[in-house]
Write a structure and sequence with these properties.
about 90 residues; mainly alpha; globular
Length: about 90
């Protein structure tokens, strides 16, 4: 399966200008490198992550939402504690 077939490199570069944070930036840089011929295995070595992580980064861009939203982690509300402070 080829990822990002429908997304031009220029669009990824434009999205890179509009994101904040380390993870969204890494994800877009990995996507740009992938579009330029770098393999998922090589990207995993570059970023010190598993190959499946790179796969997840690339597949999350295959969506109808904007690239900026796709690379950003959704805000997670804090989960209630199972134990009280004294436990």
């Amino acid at each position: 399966m080829d990822h990002l077939d429908e997304i031009p490199v220029e669009e990824l570069q434009d999205a890179l200008d509009n994101v904040d944070g380390k993870r969204p930036t890494q994800r877009l840089l990995a996507a740009i490198a992938y579009k330029n011929g770098v393999t998922q295995t090589e990207l995993a070595k570059w970023y010190g992550v598993q190959r499946r992580t790179i796969y997840s980064w690339l597949t999350r861009l295959d969506t109808d939402e904007s690239l900026e939203q796709a690379v950003t982690d959704a805000h997670r509300s804090e989960r209630k504690r199972k134990l009280s402070e004294t436990e």
